[in-house]
Structures are given as structure tokens and as C-alpha cells.
């Protein structure tokens, strides 16, 4: 299990979004309040962010707890952005432990994170893996369920499928193949696309920003997203679309 967060809005620092808010993502790494599966998120972390004028995001990922990385505190304090995606990781049993398994995953303008797990990993996800050509399976960034879901989503995005349609299709395929929790989070620096499927998801809107997160911090007013929902959000508007039930 994991916790993740995406932000679009006025220029700010990584520190002000990820570290400073009480009960925010930084604190959720050791004391999540709403996490039903797992107790801490200490198997790694990552942040991806966009610099003005560059559509391709930068990333900082480690295989250590976020609180144990003193260098990140300095990076977060001085790095400014208008869009980011961050995650703290609780690894699924049997998955890779290196920083290559820490979200966000990236390709071109996209950043991706998965909060959840494929319950049948690894032996029972053959039907899902079979949706990828063998060469793409061999190129998975890491040996973990999140990397498989990212490869499936990336394939659709690369083919030109709209992000919301692509994400809904991947969640449907995952739910058909195995039990699990499929909260996905994606951004290209302009739009956030997310799913609530088996775990909590919240949105916070202000006049100059929008946040989508696994659980709220204690700063501002958050709205819970109903389960089985697709979220598409920009700074100007948030839209919710029902996802089909498992059946």
C-alpha cells in the first residue's frame, strides 16, 4: 500500500506541498490515518515536478523512508514548481525493493503512481501481463505490480488514447484479472487524472490550485471521492465520472 498526492496551481515549493502540511504526505509516511492495509510507508518515496518551459518532469526517488533522506529536505526547500506528483511507498510482498520501484514512474510528460496492490501478484496476473507484448514486459522498469499497471497505461497513452479513457480501461482490466485496489494517479503538469477503486481519495480545491491525494492533510477543506470513480482535474475544474463495478 502507499500514499500519493498530485498538485496543480500557483508556484510553490516542494516543501510547502509535500513536507509542511500537518498530517500531509510527509507525515503519512510513518503515521497514515486512513490506511487500511499496512501501517507505515517506509519502502521508498519519490517526487516528480515540472519546471516552467520544460514539459518533461524531473524526478527524485529513493529506496529509503522520506524522513531518512536529509538531502531531500534541502531539495524540497529550494525547488519551485506549479505541478508535482509525490508518493511514499509500502511495497507489495514479492516486489522489487529498489528506487526503480518507487513512484512516480515517468515517460515523456507523464508522471504516474499506484496506491494499492494486485492481490494475485505475481502468479495470478498472467492474463493481465498477456495484454503487453513480450518485449514491453522485458522492459518493465521494476518487478512490481505498479510497474505492470504503468506499462499498460503508458501503452494506451502512447497510442493517443485520452488519459481518462486509458485509465478507466486499465482499471477495468485489472479488476477483471484479480482482486485488489487500483487507485491510480497521473499528471502531465496540466491535468490530473485519478481513480478511486478500493481505497480512499480526496480532492482539495482553492482559487489558485487543486490537490488530489490518498488522504487529506489538516490544512483546508477536502472532499472525499466516492469509490469506483474516475477524477479529471485542472486548476479550473474537477469532474467525477463513475467507473463500472467489478461485476
From TrEMBL:
Enzyme superclass (EC): hydrolase
Pfam families, sorted: GATase_4
EC code(s) of this entry: 3.5.1.118
Classification via SUPFAM superfamilies: N-terminal nucleophile aminohydrolases (Ntn hydrolases)
Cross-referenced InterPro entries: EgtC (IPR017808), EgtC-like (IPR026869), EgtC_Actinobacteria (IPR032889), Gamma-glu_amide_hydrolase (IPR052373), GATase_2_dom (IPR017932), Ntn_hydrolases_N (IPR029055)
Entry keyword Ribosomal protein: no
Catalytic reactions on record: gamma-L-glutamyl-hercynylcysteine S-oxide + H2O = S-(hercyn-2-yl)-L-cysteine S-oxide + L-glutamate
Span of domain Glutamine amidotransferase type-2: 2-247
Coiled-coil ranges from the UniProt annotation: none
GO BP term, example: ergothioneine biosynthetic process
Keyword Transport applies: no
Gene3D superfamilies documented for this protein: Glutamine Phosphoribosylpyrophosphate, subunit 1, domain 1
GO terms assigned for molecular function: hydrolase activity, acting on carbon-nitrogen (but not peptide) bonds, in linear amides
Protein function: Catalyzes the hydrolysis of the gamma-glutamyl amide bond of hercynyl-gamma-L-glutamyl-L-cysteine sulfoxide to produce hercynylcysteine sulfoxide, a step in the biosynthesis pathway of ergothioneine.
Protein name: Gamma-glutamyl-hercynylcysteine sulfoxide hydrolase
Amino acid at each position: 500500500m502507499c500514499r500519493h498526492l498530485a498538485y496543480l496551481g500557483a508556484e510553490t515549493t516542494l516543501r510547502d506541498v509535500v513536507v509542511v502540511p500537518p498530517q500531509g504526505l510527509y507525515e503519512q509516511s510513518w503515521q497514515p490515518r486512513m490506511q487500511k492495509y499496512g501501517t507505515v510507508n517506509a519502502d521508498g518515496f519519490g517526487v516528480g515536478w515540472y519546471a516552467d518551459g520544460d514539459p518533461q518532469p524531473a524526478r527524485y526517488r529513493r529506496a529509503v523512508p522520506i524522513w531518512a533522506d536529509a538531502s531531500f529536505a534541502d531539495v524540497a526547500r529550494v525547488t519551485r514548481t506549479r505541478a508535482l506528483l509525490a508518493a511514499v511507498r509500502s511495497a507489495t510482498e514479492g516486489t522489487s525493493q529498489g528506487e526503480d520501484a518507487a513512484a512516480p514512474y515517468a515517460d515523456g510528460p507523464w508522471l504516474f503512481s499506484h496506491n494499492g496492490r494486485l492481490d494475485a501478484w505475481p502468479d495470478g496476473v498472467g492474463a493481465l501481463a498477456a495484454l503487453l507484448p513480450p518485449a514491453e514486459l522485458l522492459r518493465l522498469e521494476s518487478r512490481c505490480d505498479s510497474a505492470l499497471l504503468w506499462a499498460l497505461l503508458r501503452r494506451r497513452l502512447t497510442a493517443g488514447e485520452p488519459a481518462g479513457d486509458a485509465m478507466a480501461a486499465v482499471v477495468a482490466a485489472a479488476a477483471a484479472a484479480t482482486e485488489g485496489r487500483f487507485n491510480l494517479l497521473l499528471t502531465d503538469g496540466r491535468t490530473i487524472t485519478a481513480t478511486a477503486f478500493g481505497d480512499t481519495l480526496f480532492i482539495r480545491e482553492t482559487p489558485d490550485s487543486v490537490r488530489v491525494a490518498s488522504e487529506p492533510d489538516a490544512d483546508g477543506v477536502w472532499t472525499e471521492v466516492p469509490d469506483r470513480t474516475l477524477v479529471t482535474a485542472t486548476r479550473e475544474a474537477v469532474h467525477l465520472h463513475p467507473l463500472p463495478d467489478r461485476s
